[in-house]
Amino acid sequence: MLLYFLYPLRDSFHALQVFRYLTFRSLGAGITALVICLALGPRFIAILKGKQYGQQVRDDGPQSHLKKTGTPTMGGILILLSVTLSVLLWADLSNSYIWIVLASMVSFGFIGWLDDYKKIKEANSKGLSERAKMTLQTLFAGALIAVLFGVMQLDTHLNIPFFRDINPNISYGYWIFAWLVIVGSSNAVNLTDGLDGLAIGPIMTTALTFGIFAYLSGNIQFADYLFIPYVKDSGELAILCAAMVCAGMGFLWFNTYPAQVFMGDVGALALGAALGTMAVITRNEIVLALVGGIFVLEAVSVMTQRISYKLTKKRVFRMAPIHHHFELSGWAEPQITVRFWIISLVLAMLGLATLKLR
């Protein structure tokens, strides 16, 4: 929005030339998202407390978590609001990719809101059934994929890191693959959101990494030099990524141990879907599995636990997702969180290293 109001005045005010640069607008979006989140946070938490929108804790989980019952949840709304307002202010609103990722974030956030609201109203930790949740996710992801590949004709060559000459065209199979990435990413982030501050750290490192990938993919010179797919206009997504990183910082101010507010499914499902959608647009889905390795680990631990118990009636982990296994093994909650953050940072650096190892 600011681009349309201020950039046309550049001849009269030369300083407004900076609005043409993605780097400047990304920085502006990040600062704006951080300020909005920090400014609205206390009032937003007070509203959640007033409405008694408190967390419902599993009674079969770690006993230390029972004291968290009643802590305000749905804090993800604060992140989504901060990101959306910031992007609307700083991004080029004629860019289709901006609207697609925002649509992904908001639609999956709606699913998360339904899930959180049902938990609160029914005073249990179950929420929406897995079938209902998956049906809604499939409908929303399917609509996004139809626009990307059916209307915008996004390339269907699979980009494989480390092998610049291997990029098979999987045609309509890419639609299914993209569905797996978006829905899988959304649910994996949701599974990670089980300890104070645990999910938001990897979300920030992953968003920062994909902000860099989006910026490079949208520049034909950088894309050719680094042998990565050139996706015209995708660079604008760097603004959205910057907003996501800094809104995450603002939220972490209130979500760090001991948390004053929880993200809830409304935030985890939304941000996971947004990251998955950006990975599909920039054609870095496999890199997402590397950079978001913490999310993958959490999801795989749950699947492994379920399969093992169904087949052998034995559990591989003391409890899944795996962060609960470490918690029951004696690790303190902040210890698990910080160590997972460290792993996430290392994975982000490895993901960025794929830019040169091609």
Structural features, described:
This protein has 358 residues and is mainly α. It has 14 helices and no strands. It has one domain (2-284). The protein has helices at 2-6, 22-50, 76-90, 96-122, 130-151, 173-192, 200-217, 220-226, 237-255, 264-282, 285-291, 293-312, 322-328, 333-353. Helix 4 (96-122) packs antiparallel against helix 10.
Name the features:
single chain, 358 residues, mainly alpha, 0% strand, globular
Decide which structural class fits the backbone: mainly alpha
Number of domains: 1
The global form is globular
Quaternary assembly: single chain
What fraction strand? under 5%
E-strand count: 0
Largest sheet: none
SSE pattern: HHHHHHHHHHHHHH
Report, as a whole number of angstroms, the end-to-end distance: 38 Å
* Distinct helical segment count: 14
Average pLDDT level: 92
Please compute the radius of gyration using only Cα atoms.
20 Å
Helix content: 55-70%
State the low-pLDDT regions, or none.
none
Question: Topology, please?
Answer:
Blueprint (H helix, E strand, L loop, with lengths): L1 H5 L15 H29 L25 H15 L5 H27 L7 H22 L21 H20 L7 H18 L2 H7 L10 H19 L8 H19 L2 H7 L1 H20 L9 H7 L4 H21 L5
Question: How would you sum up this structure in a few lines?
Answer:
The protein is an all-alpha fold. Helix content is 66%, strand content 0%.
